[in-house]
Description:
Structural class: alpha+beta
Helix content: 25-40%
Number of strands: 5
Distance between the termini: 44 Å
Bound molecules: coenzyme A
Strand order of the largest sheet: 1-2-3-4-5
Order of helices and strands: EHHEEEHEH
Shape: globular
Number of helices: 4
Oligomer: single chain
Amino acid sequence: MITIRAGQVKDIEAIVETQVKMAYETEGLALERDTVIKGVQAIFGNPNKGQYYVAEEDGRLVGVLLTIPEWSEWRNGCVLWIHSLYVLKEFRRKGIFKKLYQFLREKVENSSELAGLRLYVDKTNVNAQKVYEKLGMNRDHYLMYEWFK
Ligand SMILES: CC(C)(COP(=O)(O)OP(=O)(O)OC[C@H]1O[C@@H](n2cnc3c(N)ncnc32)[C@H](O)[C@@H]1OP(=O)(O)O)[C@@H](O)C(=O)NCCC(=O)NCCS
C-alpha cells in the first residue's frame, strides 16, 4: 500500500539518499553528500523555497519529488515546478509517480492560488519523457536556456 504525504524532517536522510542516487544514475555525477544534506535541510528551514512530497510503503520512503513555487502575474497564480523526482529502482513501473502526480494535480485543481505544474527533463532522459507524456503532460510550449556561475 503506497501512501503519498508531505515530506517531513524525519525524511531528510532518505531524501538525500535518493538525490545522490539520482545524480549518479541520470548524469553520472557523484554529488558531495554534505552539500546535498545542507541543500535538503535548507528546504525544510524555509518553506518558501519548496515542499517535498514522498511516497511511502510500510514506512519506507520509495519515491520523492520537490515542488518549487513560481509566481505568474499573467495568471495571478502560482506554478509548481516539479524537481528532484526519484522512485527507487525496484519500485518503478508500479504507478508510484502516477500517484505523486495525481496528488499534485488534485492539489492544483482544488486551489484557487495554484495554476499548474511544470518540469524540465534532461534531453537524454528518454524514459522520464515517455512517463510525462503518458500522464498527459506536453512540451509544446518552451525551450529552456540556462547559465551557471
Ligand atoms: C521517471 C520515474 C520517476 C517514473 O516513476 P514510476 O513510478 O516508475 O512511473 P509510473 O509507474 O507511475 O509510470 C507512469 C506511467 O508511465 C509509464 N512508464 C513508466 N516507466 C516507463 C518507461 N521507462 N517507458 C515507458 N513508459 C513508462 C507507466 O507504464 C505508466 O503508464 P500508464 O499510466 O499508462 O500505466 C522513474 O522512472 C525514475 O525515478 N527514474 C529515474 C530518475 C528520473 O529520471 N527522474 C526524473 C528526472 S526529470
